[in-house]
Design brief:
Strand order of the largest sheet: 9-11-12-13-10-14-15
Number of strands: 15
Radius of gyration: 28 Å
Mean pLDDT: 85
Helix content: 40-55%
Shape: elongated
Low-confidence stretches: 1-12, 479-486
Distance between the termini: 57 Å
Strand content: 5-15%
Largest sheet: 7 strands, mixed
Number of helices: 22
Length: 486
């Protein structure tokens, strides 16, 4: 039986001193988790400078014994060999379910050594038997300072675009960043160079099935209503300004947006990335639970998110991922995600949405997990007019040519998504008639649509009652909306 080791030390710039400290303390086996073997080899050699370094891989055996290609035999051979040499073994993880390999590692741990055995592997799934003898040390991906130095060796660029390129490369390995910078150097335009680096980052994130880098083309101006939420977001931009932390402002941690379906929750989450000028990464809990080890998948996803920070992490319909399943696997993933939300130090703004608020665990919605919890209600008449105008403009029509406010007043209980569908349906109708879109087309389409609030009146009413006491209103104009006469 294997699991991700609990004894994990997360280090970045302190990697080399940490290795030395653990070795001096007598830790018999160190597990360095990374995909960057060359970088790990260099740093480990630096930590044990002056020691003879012997390496093992299944394809070539030990540096001094090419015949020892079986991992169990290789460990046994190392135990009989030079006790002062530094031993590195690469990619042992496929054999960690083998009882003989586990026994050989335990035998190594039980004997006194001048230097530890260092295992370098891309994952840290270790047998329970080794948990007390192994310390897992993730090798952090290159930080901004390292990438800045690397960029200087690849091509010259102006200071503003230089900083953007470095931020764009965060989350890539050293070799991936080098390739990305070389590809970017082929473009004359700074925007094109940055786009090429971002494209490489998409490829890196694509290898983590739980995460997706999203192109956020939505601005707050394209979202009707929700003025309170919009103003709150614009104010949070100040926390990223120079001197904000010295003044006492903490970096924003995120927001939970609950409410009626189709009223702009996902749109405002996407627009958050544009407001804060940060990349938008989507976390897919369906992929987390589809992984062989959901707990390992969520840990890896969060580690990757922190590596690409600063970033906006978008978790759509969070209740479906964390709202329970009643089994131990859901509980472990839920606990891991809550712990990460509470203890994360990287600049990750979590933008989460929820439709079925009754499924939200109390631990998730308590104050402190998010900076604010907003409730998005069905739009008021003035908000419906704004939304209708937005969708007309998006399709090349001047809202002033239509009685937008009059139509909006008549569409009581309609959501933003339903208003968008009405405009789309009206355009199809007008195009089929080979005429320009008219007021009659809009009204005819409106008569054909039945709003969700009518179909599911009881559920919508219960949702609104929840929002009255448990969340902050995302809109200021609610005086004229009295859906159910309560």
């Amino acid at each position: 039986m294997t699991r991700q080791a609990v004894s994990t030390i997360d280090v970045g710039a302190d990697f080399v001193p940490e290795l030395r400290a653990l070795a001096a303390a007598g830790v018999p086996i160190l597990c360095v988790v990374t995909h960057e073997e060359r970088r790990a080899r260099t740093l480990v050699a630096q930590a044990f400078e002056g020691r003879r370094v012997l390496e093992w891989a299944a394809t070539r055996g030990w540096s001094d014994d090419a015949s020892a290609r079986d991992p169990a035999s290789a460990i046994e051979s190392a135990a009989r060999g030079d006790r002062t040499a530094l031993r590195l073994m690469f990619d042992v993880h496929p054999w960690l379910g083998d009882a003989r390999v586990v026994r050989a590692l335990r035998d190594w741990a039980g004997s006194a050594r001048d230097t530890p055995l260092v295992l370098v592997m891309p994952v840290a799934s270790l047998p329970l038997e080794l948990d007390r003898d192994v310390r897992v040390i993730p090798l952090a991906l290159p930080n901004a300072r390292m990438l800045s130095t690397l960029l200087d060796t690849e091509f010259e660029t102006s200071d503003p675009s230089r900083d953007a390129l470095v931020r764009g490369a965060l989350g890539l390995t050293f070799d991936e960043a080098r390739r990305a910078f070389r590809l970017a150097a082929a473009y004359a335009s700074p925007d094109e160079s940055l786009a090429r680096v971002i494209q490489e980052k998409k490829g890196a994130l694509r290898r983590n099935a739980c995460l997706e880098l999203v192109d956020s083309g939505v601005t707050l101006d394209e979202i009707g209503g929700l003025d309170v939420l919009k103003n709150w977001l614009r104010a949070r931009v100040l926390a990223f300004a120079d001197g904000a932390q010295a003044f006492g402002l903490a970096e924003p941690r995120g927001m939970l947006v609950c409410g009626v379906q189709g009223c702009g929750k996902s749109l405002v989450s996407k627009a958050t990335a544009r407001v804060l000028s940060l990349p938008l990464v989507r976390l897919d809990f369906a992929e987390v639970f589809a992984a062989p080890s959901a707990e390992h998948a969520i840990h890896e996803a969060m580690r990757t998110v922190e590596a690409v920070a600063p970033v906006v992490l978008w978790v759509d319909e969070i209740e479906k991922g964390l709202g329970g399943g009643g089994d131990a696997r859901h509980a472990r993933v839920f606990g891991a995600f809550l712990t990460w939300m509470q203890e994360r130090r990287a600049a990750v703004f979590v933008a989460a949405t929820a439709n079925e608020v009754e499924r939200l665990p109390p631990e998730l919605v308590r104050r402190g997990r998010f900076d604010e919890i907003f409730f998005v209600d069905l739009p008021s008449p003035s908000e419906r007019a704004q939304i209708l105008a937005v969708h007309l403009r998006r399709r090349g029509r001047d809202p002033a040519a239509y009685p937008v406010e009059e139509i909006a007043r008549e569409l009581e209980h309609w959501s933003g998504a339903e208003l968008e569908q009405m405009v789309s349906s009206a355009l199809f109708r007008a195009y089929a008639e080979h005429v320009e879109l008219s007021e009659d087309h809009l009204r005819a389409s409106a008569r054909e649509l039945v709003p969700l609030a009518t179909l599911y009146e009881e559920q919508i009413q219960a949702l609104r009652q929840w929002g009255q006491t448990r969340a902050r209103r995302a809109s200021a104009d609610r005086k004229t909306l009295d859906l159910f006469g309560d």
